[in-house]
Amino acid sequence: MINSYINEPLEINLNAPNGNYEVTVNLKAHCDTVFTIYSQHRNFVIRDRQIKSGEEFTAVFTVNVCDRHFDGAKYERVPGIKIQILTDGDITATAAASPIKVPVLYICGDSTVADQPSEYPYEPSATFCGWGQAFSQLTTTELAVSNHAQSGSCTKAFMATNLTAFENKLSEGDFMVIEFGHNDQKIPELDASGGYRRNIIRLADIARAHGAEPIICSPINRIIFEENGKLLNLLGAYRNACMEAAAETGCTFIDLWKRTTDYFETAGPVKSPAFFRHKGDERDYTHTNDMGGELVAKFFAQEMLRLNGPIAKYINAELTKVEQVFADPGDKLQSSEAVDHIRTVGLVNVPEDFDADITGLQI
Question: Can you tell me the distance from the alpha carbon of 161 to that of 158, in angstroms, rounded to the nearest whole number?
Fold first, then answer.
């Protein structure tokens, strides 16, 4: 259960050049409370850990420090390690870091994968969250995660900008996740069987040219329900293109389109929106909130374990359990608060301005 915290997080910054670090955080509670630890750009490390007054706790985790280059922005020199501790109580903390040699999982993608900030007071349901920022809490300390996904990004823009911040850092033993589609489908030249498919293959080839192992993911599905309880197949062609590209290149294929489709069709149109960002009258059908981002991260981890994929040995299986939410009898699209919004969406093409514009939210 994700708690609603009332304070802005305690922040600790450590100067460190680009590289991987073993980070140790020592906490002491001065009252009974609950805390969450984020690293870097709100990457989840520990979620909702209870601690009693006077109790001490030591967290050890791995952080990758890496420059970033977002489309439309200047190359960003990342100066070091940022740790944030979110709590509704009184906690003191110290931190230290030491260089460590471990493989890196670099993540390429769009807003559904990207690191997203939070507003405070913290409302998990109203906070955008890409699954890439929730994934590191599921891994062991033998793997570092470096998320370069960007809101609004497509395969073409990513290769021209974001990739330049880490391409020369890719090395033997590293891994690279590739997941796009939501923005590519709005650009005619990046159609599923054309430019999009070619760019997915190109990204996989770039990873392998540097000795890294590519992992191709299909895009998560939007929760646009039809009256028969099924989700509109708005991204199926891009899912198929990913599957074909993975088969052609011999890459591991993680089918997040299927996992999200199956889960949310089972949850139904009334309960599914709880996993997507909503605040007051604002509703989103593409971008997950903190609960949804964590859910999709677990889908990715479960599929990696099921396939015994290239990073399976770095995943803590005990942390990947998911509780399926089931629609109640009588849950219909007509009984969903989203019905009026959903009826404005075309049944064949997604309007170019359909997705909420969150391109300015990256941190």
Answer: 5
Rounded to whole angstroms, the Cα distance separating 116 from 173 reads 28
Residue 57 neighbours by CB distance under 10 Å: 18
Give the Cβ contact number of residue 330 at 10 Å. 8
Region 224-243 average pLDDT: 92
Instruction: Say which DSSP state 208 is in.
Output: H
User: What's the structural domain count of the chain?
Assistant: 1
Q: In sequence order, what are the beta bridge partners of 179?
A: 109
Q: Distance between CA 120 and CA 50 in Å, rounded?
A: 20
Torsion of CA 219, 223, 226, 227, to 10 degrees: 150
Q: Which strands, in side-by-side order, build the sheet including 56-65?
A: 56-65, 19-29, 91-99
CA distance 222 to 166: 29
Are 46 and 37 contacting, i.e. CB atoms less than 8 angstroms apart?
yes
Q: Which domain holds residue 207?
A: 102-342
Rounded CA gap, 49 and 158, in Å?
36
Q: Is residue 352 part of a domain?
A: no
**CB of 222 closer than 8 Å to CB of 235:** yes
Predicted confidence (pLDDT) per residue in 37-60, tens digit: 999 999 999 999 999 999 999 999
Q: In the structure encoding, which two tokens stand for residue 139, read together?
A: 């891994």
CATH number at residue 119: 3.40.50.1110
How many whole angstroms separate alpha carbon 83 and alpha carbon 16?
A: 13
The whole-model pTM stands at 0.93
- Written as six digits, the tokens of 249 are 């290149």
Q: Rounded to whole angstroms, how far apart are CA atoms 265 and 183?
A: 23
C-alpha to C-alpha distance for 297 and 307, rounded to whole angstroms: 16
| Strands of the sheet with 104-109, listed across from one edge | 144-147, 104-109, 175-179, 213-217, 252-254
Which pLDDT score, from 0 to 100, does residue 281 have? 79
